Amino acid sequence: MSEPKTRSEAINAKCRDCIYDPMSSGTWREQVACCISANCALHAFRPMPRNVTDAASLAKLRATIEQRNRNR
């Protein structure tokens, strides 16, 4: 990946580098949205999929990814 040019690109790159596992279910944004590392300075700024707008939709996404990973 090329050097990030904006703050948003830098946050996306760091989050993707930190948590994304291509062997796990979900896109990198879905996996980053499910991050539970609340002590991370970027946690509140992590990229979220467009369909995750509240705590209920985040919980549903986490459950979906966990179910996909169990079915592998």
Provide the helix percentage: 40-55%
Intertermini distance: 29 Å
Tell me what portion of residues adopts beta-strand conformation. Answer: under 5%
Helices and strands, in order, run as HHH
Runs in which pLDDT lies below 50 for 5 or more consecutive residues are none
Apparent shape: globular
Number of helices: 3
What is the residue-mean pLDDT, rounded to a whole number?
91
- Beta-strand segment tally: 0
Radius of gyration: 13 Å
Instruction: Characterize the main sheet.
Output: none
**What's the number of domains?**
1
Structural class: mainly alpha
Written overview of the protein:
By secondary structure, the protein is an all-alpha fold. The protein has one domain (7-70). The protein has three helices and no strands. It has helices at residues 7-19, 28-33, 55-70. The chain is globular, with a radius of gyration of 13 Å.
Task: Please render the helix and strand layout as text.
Layout: H1 7-19, H2 28-33, H3 55-70
Question: How would you sum up this structure in a few lines?
Answer:
The chain has 72 residues and is mostly helical. It has helices at residues 7-19, 28-33, 55-70.
